[in-house]
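TA notes, week 10

Several of you asked for a full example with nothing omitted. So below is the full record: structure tokens for the whole chain, then the designed sequence directly under it. When grading your own attempts, check the secondary structure regions first.
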């Protein structure tokens, strides 16, 4: 088992740092940083997939915590919605992670690709969606819908993971009526909880590579801080554009995975 950096070349360490920074930035704006970070971790010699997943979660929680704090100071998202949603998402993520070892991710990838295509079309064909906050639900219904989103996407993050932040953002925009910027702010709080839920499962199993994880976490923090500041300064239109780019990249990546697994 890898315990530190003994078998890793300097170029790989530099790549992990750069990937962690870029992933933190993307995650802070719209989510989807795992597209960048996880493949970089898989370049580490001798790393097992479960170690890559666990270490990815460790690095990510530093970034999501930093971007969540930055959004909170600058956007002030409503914690009465975000906190219950995050608590439910944490439990869902723990449950998903506990099943991750028994259910192959390949079973779900075609469904995820179809869902992402639908999300991309919905966002592209409705350019005014997410420009301004216009809540669709009131009272208890608002919180019930928020918690349902947290439970489903939290479970998904623990089980599979790719695109969790993007799914959170589009769910908050389309199902609840938030603007893209405010949706991103709430999504970071929830995403931090889903990372924590998965880590609670991985920690007792000794799957985390601590040296790499802490280095990744530091890079993620820097990227997360800069990404959140950029999103706040540029506003919802900028977040929407980055969202579409990240979703398109997710579709290509998962589509390629499906092709390799079934036809190559």
């Amino acid at each position: 088992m890898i315990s530190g950096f003994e078998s890793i070349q300097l170029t790989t360490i530099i790549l992990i740092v750069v990937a962690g920074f870029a992933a933190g930035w993307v995650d802070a704006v719209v989510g989807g940083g795992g597209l960048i970070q996880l493949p970089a971790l898989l370049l580490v010699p001798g790393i097992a997939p479960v170690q890559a997943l666990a270490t990815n979660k460790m690095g990510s929680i530093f970034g999501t915590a930093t971007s969540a704090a930055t959004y909170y100071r600058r956007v002030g998202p409503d914690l009465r919605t975000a906190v219950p949603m995050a608590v439910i998402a944490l439990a869902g993520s723990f449950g998903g992670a506990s099943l991750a070892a028994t259910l192959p991710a390949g079973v779900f990838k075609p469904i995820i690709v179809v869902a992402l295509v639908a999300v991309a079309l919905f966002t592209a064909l409705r350019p005014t969606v997410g420009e301004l906050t216009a809540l669709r639900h009131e009272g208890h219904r608002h919180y019930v819908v928020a918690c349902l989103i947290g439970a489903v996407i939290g479970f998904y993050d623990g089980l599979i993971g790719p695109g969790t932040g993007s799914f959170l953002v589009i769910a908050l925009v389309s199902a609840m009526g938030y603007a893209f910027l405010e949706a991103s702010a709430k999504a970071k709080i929830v995403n931090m909880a889903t990372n924590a839920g998965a880590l609670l499962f991985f920690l007792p199993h000794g799957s985390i590579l601590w040296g790499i994880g802490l280095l990744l976490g530091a890079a993620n923090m820097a990227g997360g801080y800069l990404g959140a500041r950029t999103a706040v300064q540029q506003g919802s239109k900028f977040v929407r554009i980055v969202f579409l780019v990240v979703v398109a990249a997710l579709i290509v990546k998962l589509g390629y995975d499906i092709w390799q697994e079934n036809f190559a």
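Residues 10-262 form one domain. Use that as a sanity check on your answer.
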